[in-house]
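=== RUN LOG ===
request id: a7f3
mode: sequence -> structure
chains: 1
length: 504
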Amino acid sequence: MKKRYIYDPLTQKLVKAREKRGVDSVSYCCPDEKNVEPSDKINKSINDVHNDTINAQDWIGDNQEEELIASEEKEEEMPSDKVTPLTFKAGGKQHDKRGQYGRITEIGYPAYMVNRKWEVEWANESAEKLFFTHNIKELSTAEERNVFRLLIKALPKTALTLPKAALINLEDFISLNAELASLDIPSPLDSSTLRSLSAEELSVLNKLWRKKESSQKIPLEKREFVLNHHIEGEKKYNFISCVFREGTLLILIPSDVLLDPIMDVLLGREKVVRDLMLNKMPSFCSLCVLVADLQNSVKISADLPPAEYFELVSQIWSRMENSFRKYHGTMGKHVGDGLVRFFLAEPESPFQHVLNGLLCAYEIRKKLAEINSEWNIRKKWTNRLCFNIGIHEGREWFGYIPVNQFTALGDTVNISGRLSEFARDGAVWTSKHLISLLPTDIQKKLAFGIRRSSSQGEIFVANTFSRIMDLTELSRPENSKFVDISTLSVTELVEVDQKLLDGN
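=== RESULT ===
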């Protein structure tokens, strides 16, 4: 006797569905692919989805209850990273949990996420085995995890050998990825990330490169693709690409599997992104760290009623947010009334992350000066609102921690924090190392130097540096915290050419 089943992609199970009226229990059945009848109505409008916030119910429409036919006699388990029960007991009854799916990172079919440079930031075991032939977590740098570097390394060396990956038509899969990637990155011959590939590998990749006809990214897109496995033979798949601000998620689902449930999950974009970020792989990379502390924050909080203090803090952070986005600053973990922002190096520019950090520091200092003027008029007080800012650059391990924040391990963050403590009255202090990373023409558009005492009073000596030990008395108890950076050569940033702020 034939029965009705609904497929749950996260558990890799077919669930026996009873009539809607008054029955809420379900039972499991493992699928027998020979008896599965794919619906020809599945995802008829996926490629037309252009609105990230489209309502799932409107999109799915009448396809919510697609029928799949399966036999009860044969039971063959499908691969799954984790099985989540679809029923729960309450009030003595079994209840259906369809629609309350687990995490996207638990899906058993090949899936991986790439960032805007097409470096793999998350991949499940199925994708690693099928495409990449690597445990990607063992690769320390983001450059090594470039998806095209991984795929081209998995190709056979001669026509007589099998590919290192499980696919015979891996070249077609590379071209499919290239078509999507062409909207984000340059062709292989123009990419600095792929320069370490051999001339032969670059030539092969360049021949497989395919530009997308449309210049517009589609938030959620489905394509049919046939994978030719050297053991299992040809099998049809739906290649799903889901574009987020953080990158692109790619999933391969067998064509005989109902897609509506997984599409329903993908439309919950915020939940999907949060899950992927929690599982994002750390990488060893160059970064610029900005640490800023609000000077005299304890006194300011004591001077204001609680409601006004929270109003002030909220105003400060909301005004700063545009600057952080403008200069691509990533939020980091920090305690107190301060902040940490990370500016990550771009493969195409060895110094842009440094310039971004400096320009961001200068801009948020100006914005806080404006807020300070507003509150001086409002409160008629003597408090001065200013950030004490420290900036440094280095190569560190960078990754996500499960408190919705990124963090970096190593001395770069510690040095930036110390420079922030060293700064007073809204100053921006940075290291000689960081300034030296900038081209000479950029350095000429920055006013930096050291304030020196003379018989005529304090003078500013431009384009100079000094060690911390020569700028403060380390023997004083309050300065003992600077001992660990005593030999660091530093300078104060006082002005930035407006042309740099305007992007010229």
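=== NOTES ===
DSSP finds 14 helices and 21 strands in the chain.
Residues 141 and 284 are 5 Å apart (CA to CA).
=== END ===
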